[in-house]
Amino acid sequence: MAKIRKELPKGNILYPDSKEALEKNIDKILGALGLAMRAGGLAVGTEAVTQAVDKGKARIVFLAENISDGTKDKLLSKLVYKEIKYILLPCSMEMLSKRLGKSGNISAAALIRPGFEKIIFKCMDTPTVNCTNIGKE
Fold first, then answer.
1. CA of 104: how far to CAs of 88, 99, 127, in Å?
2. Residue 137 and residue 83: Cα distance in Å, rounded?
3. Which alpha helices (H) appear in the chain, and where do they start and end?
4. How far, in Å, are 31, 36, 52, 93, 122 from residue 109 at the CA level?
5. Rounded Cα–Cα distance for residues 113 and 59 (Å)
6. What's the confidence (pLDDT) of residue 4?
């Protein structure tokens, strides 16, 4: 049986100065993710995110806070191995699905096109983050 990861790996996680900044700006962040999706720059769902990670297209991965332990462990193992940054969103799978206009529960999404991470960081009020080193060109 696979070992379930209880703690998130700290080296790959991206947060602004505090989780409160994410909570304060979650509506802006989800709106920016919706914009990225409409522009074809977002992989949505665990399977699509896994494929994007495997193909080296995922730039930043977003996880819903109530993602299952098994799915979290599967994704985090890949993210750590591929050295891809992720953000644990302070929202449920239901809220993420609704804001992206998808039915069912979406537990993960990944930015797959350059440029959208700058919009996300602007929404999080973190202009000091160097976006040029995120993801693989």
1. 19, 12, 34
2. 14
3. 19-24, 26-38, 46-54, 69-82, 93-99, 116-123
4. 13, 11, 10, 11, 18
5. 7
6. 44
Please give the single-letter amino acid code of residue 133.
N
φ and ψ of 84, to 5 deg: -105, 135
pTM of the model: 0.80
pLDDT tens digits for 29-78? 899 999 999 999 999 999 999 999 999 999 999 999 999 999 999 999 99
Q: Which residue has the tokens 């009020």?
A: 125
How far apart are the C-alpha atoms of 37 and 28, rounded to whole Å?
Answer: 14
3-state SS, residue 77: helix
Going by the DSSP 8-state scheme, the letter that residue 134 receives in this structure is S
Torsion of CA 63, 68, 69, 70, to 10 degrees: -100
In three-state secondary structure terms, 80 is: helix
> How many C-alpha atoms does 77 have within 13 Å on its Cβ side?
10
